[in-house]
């Protein structure tokens, strides 16, 4: 038995079939980088149109690739928020229609809970309690997870998310979308000669990244001859310094068994390496999603939906653009 997971909260149309143990029987994803590249960010109206074109063929391909029929489905899990309203609506309306036609129940899933469950895909596990850091395109937060349904927020960003900062710095440096991987690669070739600010590093669990982004832009204006690889290296160094300092502080003040990093930025090899060091210092297990499950995907939504089934929680498939972390 599988859950069919549907994710359309932002700019990826992604559909997966996943069993209770997190084995992914099929995954089909259509990205929209070419649609939004010229705008330097996701253009909401175009995103929902692209989802509309992609969603049914993507569902069909996923079902075929798993060799599944509707009778093999325990439920359809679909992202209900947070995300762009128009994008969410396409996934939700599709899930609703399929539920009616196939006679399979539909569950509205919290996208952030999906990211948290991404570490459970492909046989991964997470000891609890855990300190979890969600670093994505729309969020940057650190929380303590007591169990799967009891999560207390320690702090989040006051302005930009880390992922946004990667994307904007990539734009400043003239790299294409997606910005994250391009910066990772370039940073490896440069030296962090320049010291960039580390906003809010010294205290607490809140973050601020807009100053770092502006510092990069100012430096490139002031000294356009600065090698972009060096700039990327300095940016990555500053970002990782802030993220690992916060993770380290969280583990000192709120002891846990695991350090878990999820969200698109958890795909960064530099972030993964730095967090390994933090986890070793505190002698806790480091839990990372396999790189391909760090960014948005239907598989993590399907696995999260299994938890809802187990608890008999079934939020309606209605869009909630600002759904917070603590809500199912
Ligand atoms: P949210 O989940 O908060 O609603 P989102 O779904 O848009 O936001 P994700 O798909 O989890 O975000 O992550 C996308 C972000 O991750 C982008 O900002 C991108 O730059 C960043 N990212 C992706 N790959 C990498 C990488 N290898 N290194 C650094 N950042 C990366
Ligand atoms: Fe996401």
Automatic annotation (TrEMBL):
Gene3D superfamilies: 3.30.420.40. Substrate binds at residues 134-138, 167, 180, 184. Residues 24-302 form the Gcp-like domain. It is found in: Cytoplasm. Keywords: Acyltransferase, Cytoplasm, Iron, Metal-binding, Transferase, tRNA processing. Binds 1 Fe(2+) ion per subunit. It catalyses: L-threonylcarbamoyladenylate + adenosine(37) in tRNA = N(6)-L-threonylcarbamoyladenosine(37) in tRNA + AMP + H(+). InterPro entries: ATPase_NBD, Gcp-like_dom, KAE1/TsaD, TsaD. Pfam families: TsaD. Its cofactor is Fe(2+). The keyword tRNA processing applies. Its EC number is 2.3.1.234. Fe cation binds at residues 111, 115, 296. Belongs to the KAE1 / TsaD family. Required for the formation of a threonylcarbamoyl group on adenosine at position 37 (t(6)A37) in tRNAs that read codons beginning with adenine. Is involved in the transfer of the threonylcarbamoyl moiety of threonylcarbamoyl-AMP (TC-AMP) to the N6 group of A37, together with TsaE and TsaB. TsaD likely plays a direct catalytic role in this reaction. This is tRNA N6-adenosine threonylcarbamoyltransferase. The gene is tsaD.
